[in-house]
Amino acid sequence: MIDSLIKFLDSSPCNFLAVDTARRLLLNAGFAERRLADSLADVKAGDRFFVTKNDSAIFAVTVGEKAPCETGFKIIAAHSDSPCFRVKPAAEIPGEGGVLRLNTEVYGGPILYTWFDRPLSLAGRVILRGSDALHPVTRLLHIKRPLLTIPHLAIHFNRAVNDGNPLSKQRDMLPIIAILNNNLEANGFLLRLVADELGVAKGDILDFDLMLYDTQGACRFGVNNEFISSGRLDDLSMAHAALMAITSATDTQATCVAAIFDNEETGSGTKQGAASPVLASLLERINGAIGGDSERFAMAVQRSFMISADNAHAYHPNYPGKYDPTNHPSLGGGPCVKINANCKYMTDAHSAAIFRALCDGAGVNCQYFVNHSDVAGGSTLGNILTAQVDIEGVDVGNPILAMHSARETASVADHEAMTRVMTHFFTNV
Ligand code: ZN
Description:
Layout: H1 2-10, H2 15-28, E1 32-33, E2 48-53, E3 57-62, H3 68-71, E4 73-79, E5 84-93, E6 99-107, E7 120-128, E8 137-142, E9 176-179, H4 189-198, E10 205-214, E11 219-221, E12 227-230, H5 233-248, E13 255-261, H6 278-289, H7 294-302, E14 305-309, E15 312-313, E16 336-339, H8 349-362, E17 367-370, H9 382-386, E18 392-397, E19 399-400, E20 408-411, H10 412-427
Parallel strand pairs: 1-2, 4-13, 4-14, 14-18, 15-19, 16-17
Antiparallel strand pairs: 2-3, 3-13, 5-6, 6-9, 7-8, 7-10, 11-12, 12-20, 16-18
Bound molecules: zinc ion (ZN).
Zinc ion binds next to helix 5.
């Protein structure tokens, strides 16, 4: 299980590659690839298929033996994106010092200084000229060798660096990619590099979505190998658990959906994000294909349950004052239910009770995360989704340390436990 997670993380350096990794995993498990742009009217009980949206969100479905109006839908939601740096257009910045930098923009909320002095590379998608203006061609790009680094200023120029060091995203965070010499033309450098990598003509590249990523892979550590260290555990670990659960769900009574959205880190407000109608309309189309009308769809929604899975904060022993005195989950203590009195999470006593009973059924310990009352905390997918479709659900996640660092830390046992709970939800209840 953990080897599979490590492989999943390493082949998913950004949202687009994560969806492609999920796509290949689903194809291997016998799921059919379908397109939202094509008719889904022939979908029938027992089908296992997936669709993608914008190459960066993916929805895997097993159609149940019973109609959704009888059983409701069972949904697990996670997200494909993680905080990172995106390359801006016209990115090359040649200058004094003889090195070429790339201009970037921060995506989401990374812990900036964890990105310094790492062997970074580029991944994302490149859009090529197609048959006509409305039909360009998408190619994925995953350059695996280290290409860039964001060098920190030497301590000799800032002796106070360890006393707090405010960073400018525009000045301090630009990566270097090459030493300039007579053979290296800065103008058009990046497009030439990308064209060479893909084996296409530079003139055929119309645009790109390229991100920086840490080339150092995921690994286990700890005296008993009990930890996992990787970039993007938030939220690819939950996406992986959801995919493990849906691929092992066969002959289910209810229709099950593993929904992996994009752009959670920037508020979910895109067509492939949780605030869009993409999931609600997919559920409606499945309901329609197997003979349900709008009344039956409304019944199905009221009988449905959703697990919104996004990581939680593990108790950090160096900062006890940041945590709630009685609800601070431990690494290795099992999946967490996330609770907020002001409804930043969709969890309530009824849905928390359902998740706890699922944990009991799977033989897994369950923990609770509540913010220290003086700490604002974050938000996640659950409530954003319910604005589109009013399904009952619970916000959960495994506890991790250093959320939004270039490398986060989680527990091996928790990943196995969450996968067991999700599999139990899809298969046994
Ligand atoms: Zn997240």
